[in-house]
Specification:
Layout lengths: L1 H14 L6 E3 L4 E4 L3 E4 L2 E2 L7 E3 L4 E4 H7 L3 E5 L4 E6 L2 E6 L4 E4 L2 E4 L5 E3 L2 E5 H8 L2 E5 L4 E5 L13
Parallel strand pairs: 3-15
Antiparallel strand pairs: 1-2, 2-5, 3-4, 5-6, 6-13, 7-8, 8-9, 9-10, 10-11, 12-13, 14-15
């Protein structure tokens, strides 16, 4: 997982050296990107652009991506906590908290979720690991392809 994260960070730094815009929030400094996200071959309509933090972490707009991944969402405004459920996986993310609750385990994230213009931004790799079967980065076109379908190769010899 760390190799994939390191790869994504390097890719994003190379792709987005030209800074499009910077903004400050209480939680993080970031720059907007022109990265697109596709889920199962379909473009995701993002309510906010994907951002790259000053730490080099790719952050996805949670609602847009999780809805496209067909996860059930609930938001607790009292605790600023998002709960996403898909199949047998439950992920809980709290604004400003580096601990993600993934099923019954706690996972330390590199960047705490933060809100930008009403959009919860969460570490992209966390959503990929929790809710997708595979992912691919198209560097030339700046697209992250996510797949919710497992592809199984037929590795046995089917002849008698």
């Amino acid at each position: 997982m760390q190799k994939m994260m390191a790869f994504l960070v390097v890719v994003m730094l190379v792709l987005f050296v030209p800074v499009i815009s910077f903004a400050k929030t209480v939680q993080a400094s970031y720059m907007k990107t022109s990265i697109q996200i596709n889920v199962d071959g379909r473009p995701v309509s993002l309510r906010h652009p994907v951002v790259l933090t000053n730490k080099g972490i790719v952050m996805f707009p949670a609602r847009s991506v999780l809805v496209a991944l067909r996860a059930r969402l609930s938001w607790d405004p009292k605790t600023n906590t998002l709960t996403a459920i898909k199949n047998h996986t439950t992920l809980r993310l709290k604004v400003g908290d580096n601990i993600a609750r993934w099923d019954n385990d706690n996972t330390m994230t590199q960047q705490a979720p933060f809100i930008v213009n009403g959009n919860l931004m969460v570490q992209g790799q966390l959503l990929i690991d929790a809710f997708t079967a595979s992912n691919e980065v198209d560097l030339q076109n700046k697209i992250i392809h996510l797949s919710t379908v497992h592809s199984y190769s037929n590795s046995y010899n089917n002849t008698l």
